[in-house]
Amino acid sequence: MTFLELFILAVGVSLDAFAVAECKGLAIRTPYLRHYLSVGLWFAIFQVLIPLAGYYVGRLFSDYIAAFGHAIAFIMLCAIGFNMFRESRITYKTGGTSLAFRYMLPMALGISIDGLATGIAIAFLNARIVLAVCLIGIVTFIFSVLGVRTGCVAGTKYKVAAQIAGGLILILLGLKILLAHLGFLG
Fold first, then answer.
1. How far apart are CA 13 and CA 181, in angstroms?
2. Residues in the chain with pLDDT values less than 50
3. Cα–Cα distance between 124 and 61 in angstroms, integer?
4. Cα Rg for the chain, rounded, in angstroms?
5. Residue 78 CB neighbours (<10 A)
């Protein structure tokens, strides 16, 4: 995968974090630096660790199913994308203004669980995992901070649009990978 494709993947995966951070910002209303940092770090760290775990799981099996790797990457990215469409209708319980472990852990896990499949897809594509997770972490942190800010200023106006856009980006990226593998794209 090229740098641009990895960046697009990072944006697609991070839009889920933006949507949930926006809900958190709506609850906080007057965020301080600690709110931005806490939400951004929780979401970014999990968006790095979970795909990294998925990558190593994928590497364990990549030799056995190498011929199907591109199809598996396509299916996983599309599944994540369609899941983001589905999640656009779900309301997250953000725990109000609290940054407590018991509220932040389930939210961070919830938005990053798709990252397991993302990591597996990265493994099958033999992409540069360090670059991929660094981009995902940085973009997720930035989008999370922006989500908190947007939520406290504009409410959850962009939540559904962000999740739908993220899903569409991942589906299109999966389709591009499959079409390139089949020889339809250069």
1. 22
2. none
3. 9
4. 16
5. 18
In terms of C-beta density within 10 A (0-12 exposed, 13-18 middle, 19 or more buried), how is residue 29 classed? Answer: exposed
CB 53 within 8 A of CB 116: yes
Q: How far apart are the first and last CA of the chain?
A: 13
Task: Measure Cα distances from 20 to 26, 75, 97, 144, 181 in Å.
Answer: 10, 25, 13, 8, 34
Hey, CA dihedral for 89, 93, 99, 100, is it positive or negative? negative
Tokens standing for residue 149: 């800010």
Predicted TM-score of the model (pTM) = 0.79
Burial of 59 (0-12, 13-18, 19+ CB in 10 A): middle
Rounded Cα distance between 170 and 153, Å, is 28
For 142-167, what is each residue's pLDDT tens digit? 999 999 999 888 766 676 777 788 77
Phi and psi at 84, nearest 5°, equal -65, -35
Half-sphere exposure of 100 (CA within 13 A, CB side): 7
Asked if residue 77 lies in contact with residue 178, where contact means CB atoms within 8 angstroms, the answer is no
In whole angstroms, give the CA distance from residue 164 to residue 160.
6
DSSP state, residue 182: T
